[in-house]
Design a protein that fits this description.
By secondary structure, this protein is an all-alpha fold. It has a domain of 79 residues: Serine Threonine Protein Phosphatase 5, Tetratricopeptide repeat, CATH 1.25.40. It has 22 helices and no strands. Helix 3 runs antiparallel to helix 4, helix 12 runs antiparallel to helix 13 and helix 16 packs parallel to helix 18. The longest helix is centred in the N-terminal third of the chain and has 18 residues. The protein is elongated, with a radius of gyration of 26 Å. 50% of the residues are buried.
Amino acid sequence: MNAESAYLFRHALLRDAAYQLQLPGERARLHALAFAVLEHAAGGRPPVPPPLGAPNPPPLQPHASDPLALELAGHARAALAARLSSSGPDEPEVPAEAPALYFRRAAEFARKQFRHETARSCWLHLAELSSGIRRAHALRLAGVASAMKGRRGDAEKLLRDALALCRAEGAPSLEAAVLSDLAKFCDDTGRPGDAAELNDRALAFFRSAGDRRNQAVVLMNLANNHSEAGRLPVAEQLHGEANSIFREIGARDMEAVSLGNLGLIYDATGRHDLARPAFERALALHRDLGRRRSEGIVLRGLAAHLRRQGEFEEAARSCRQAIDLLRDAGARRDEGIALGILGSILLEAGRSDEAERALEQALAIHGEVGDRRSEGIDSGRLAGVYRETLRPDAARRLYEMSLDLLREVGDRRSEAATLRDLGEIHASAGRPELAERCHLRSIRLFRALGDARQEAGGPPEE
């Protein structure tokens, strides 16, 4: 190709102007030609994937065109949008189903690479090209991608749009799946009551339908609700039920998740001899399956466990590994939680400056993604840094802010620990009546939660 037949536009405005100068029919022909050339260069058209929502679908097989799928979808859509009323024998053909095929593959490819914003955009394009159940599936997946990216308002709207469409189309199985997604979203954004109600509705359907895998997933989500509210015996029972089902049906990915959750319960209840093996087994499964985000979440829990054992260097190392994995996976909410745990490790290790930086980063992410519970927990941790560095007034204000957030989301265990710490601030400042009031409230909460170790002054749990 020489300079007479090819042009390179270095400025976007010039490129757009040149594009707009083309007549619609000519633009469509050029898009069709680009589509045909790219598809041929990538080894031809990939196989059509199983329908969205197909029961137990095989994994989507990779294809050489996957890195180009988004570009192919764009060319196909543009070619079809201004298709010539008639085309000559040498004009390239673009099948009507090509945009949907390539937007689907582009979404799946982006999801595997943790590019949640791109995945969300592709699912939305697919939803525009779809109707009925397929549109509901695409909206649901766009909502999940939005939640992963931290776009909370967008995520909830997309999930509720998907839910409404499921009801209109009479798709109870998909409706239950969306209810479960919404429940997790509500839990992540500090609405435990809404989460529990949605999980109960989803669980009732999955039980009646005999859907064991999804039944166990919802049991696990309910267990997490109970754990965050301080009802650890109930949480352990539900996690145990979920783990048994996952093992029975051979769902190793979810078995690993439930093992990690059980590790957290064992650790929170002082059974450290059970916690470490549960974390290690979960890590081995996630690594064997190549689930890097899940590996990061378990490493985060292991770091908190090591912190309680006083192994601060190993705990910090595990937590930094978790942060790297979660950041690579684009899991902003999980990354923020890990940064908060790192801050608590560094504070206990006497590295206050580093702890403050980590906690400030964590709080910025919590605010970005709307994680009110974690914002409450890490506000209390940052107050602890202020207290250690002789800034008692700033510490008191932050503890009070933390209490407001923790009460809002119903995290009674963290509320009790924060009340205890606030009481010590009041005592140091010569306010004995306020100190006693905080300590008594803390003791009553810990006693109601059945946590004698915390009542006696143990460290706050994650």
